[in-house]
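Many introductory courses stop at the sequence. We go one step further.
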Amino acid sequence: MEHFLFKPLLVTSISASTFVAGCQLSLSNVSVSMILDQPNLSEATSLSQFKTLFLRGFRLCPLPSIFSALCCASNAGLAYYKHGSITPTVSRLSLAAALMVGLIPFTLAFVLPTEEKILKRAARFASGESVAKDADKKEEDTRALMEKWSVLNYARTLFPVAGVVVAWTLL
């Protein structure tokens, strides 16, 4: 028998992590794809649109990721307290919590360097500063950076999805 908050905390963590996964997938699958699919879109416009979608993702995703992990971790703590030992349920809840919040360290380690390059380039364009002598080369560089970002964003989506799968096994 589990504690009385087990199911509500579990369902809440699954819901919040599913929200994060959906947001992350939509950023790559919808937003960046639309930017990259516009062959005549200027580099300045592409960078401006990327900055907008970056800011939206930055506002939407980290807090629900942390919240879902806290729900799983709280659930693991309550289950540990109730049973007095590390049970398979406690282990799976702990793993789910780590996976649900895992996209944050992944972002800091792998996605952030690419985001910084794109956002610095966007800032230079916004200020009117000359970005490149060879505009065609920079168009390719910006496009390549956005494509790389999109792939990394797909990869970081795997963390909340894996967390949901692990948590779901406890329902």
